[in-house]
Amino acid sequence: MSNVQSAMGTGVNEMDMLDMGELFGEEQAQEPVKAGPGMSMFRDVPLTVTLEVASTEVTLGELSDAEAGDVLPLDKAVGEPLDVKVNGVLFAKAEVVMVNGKYGLKFVSTRREQKTDA
């Protein structure tokens, strides 16, 4: 949680969170990069972005015995970056931040970066 608290106190504003080029470590071009003729038609395709905190496997019996107040341990350590999935496919790792009183995501790595590091 210390990452969340430190990000909340840094005064992150909405414009900082929306500059995706900086988040992904891309150099900003002098002129805007234009999408190729074949890609422009996909710009308005809606995508579902999901933040996966963690997961675990339980049996149907264990889950059906769960009651209010029970705790289910998960498989991710506290402070570890969370999985960002786009339409169910892993896209990036991120930390949760606050943006104008709402939750936001600060990308710490993307799938593209993970592939080049491998």
Automatic annotation (TrEMBL):
The keyword Cell membrane applies. Belongs to the FliN/MopA/SpaO family. It is found in: Cell membrane. It comes from the Bacteria. Keywords: Cell membrane, Cell projection, Chemotaxis, Cilium, Flagellar rotation, Flagellum, Membrane. It comes from Rheinheimera marina. Coiled coil: none annotated. Pfam families: FliMN_C. Signal peptide: none annotated. SUPFAM superfamilies: Surface presentation of antigens (SPOA). It is a peripheral membrane protein. Its main location: membrane. Residues 42-107 form the Flagellar motor switch protein FliN-like C-terminal domain. This is Flagellar motor switch protein FliN.
